[in-house]
Amino acid sequence: MHAYTIKPRVSEVNGAGHIGNTVIPVWLEESRVDFLQFALKGRKFKYFLARIEQDFRKEIFLGSDVLIKTVTEKTGTSSLTISQEVWQNDSLCAESKSVLVHINKKDNRPALIVEEDRALLNQSIS
Fold first, then answer.
1. Could you give the strand order of the β-sheet that contains 79-88, starting from the edge strand earlier in sequence?
2. Distance between CA 101 and CA 60 in Å, rounded?
3. Looking at residue 126, what is its pLDDT?
4. pTM score
5. What stretches of the chain show up as alpha helix (H) in DSSP?
6. Radius of gyration over alpha carbons of the chain, in Å?
7. 67 CB contacts (<8 Å, ≥6 apart)?
């Protein structure tokens, strides 16, 4: 499991007084990028986001850090499914699943995930 901390900003608060639901996908992407850098030990992994699903469980407020937990759920031939949870003050606030498709740097087409990357990604399987 990879943990990433976010400090909510005033600009992310909506008119209802909590963090807007359009902010959460931005935080999840930031955490995904950090997760891949961590899991792959800095190795390059070019991808596109093919699918994302999110479930909002509880409001998030300004004033307390947010913890995003990320794990590999499944590695396919050219795709990677990761699960993420968004926590604030020991409460689960949102859950997400994302499918990333690994692409070739030269032509931006789907590419096989090499065995070394697969092994590194599978170390963080949930």
1. 2-6, 66-75, 79-88, 91-102, 47-56
2. 30
3. 62
4. 0.92
5. 24-39, 115-122
6. 15
7. 3, 4, 5, 6, 86, 87, 88
Residues in the chain: 126
Tokens 């399987």 sit on residue: 125
User: Using an 8 Å Cβ cutoff, are 5 and 65 in contact?
Assistant: yes
Ramachandran angles phi, psi of 114, nearest 5°: -65, 155
Distance CA 31, CA 76 (A): 21
Write out the E strands in 76-118: 79-88, 91-102
The CATH architecture of the domain made up of 2-122 is Roll (3.10)
Domain boundaries, the chain: 2-122
Closest to 51 (Cα-Cα) out of 76, 68, 15, 87: 76
Question: In the chain, what percentage of residues exceed pLDDT 90?
Answer: 88
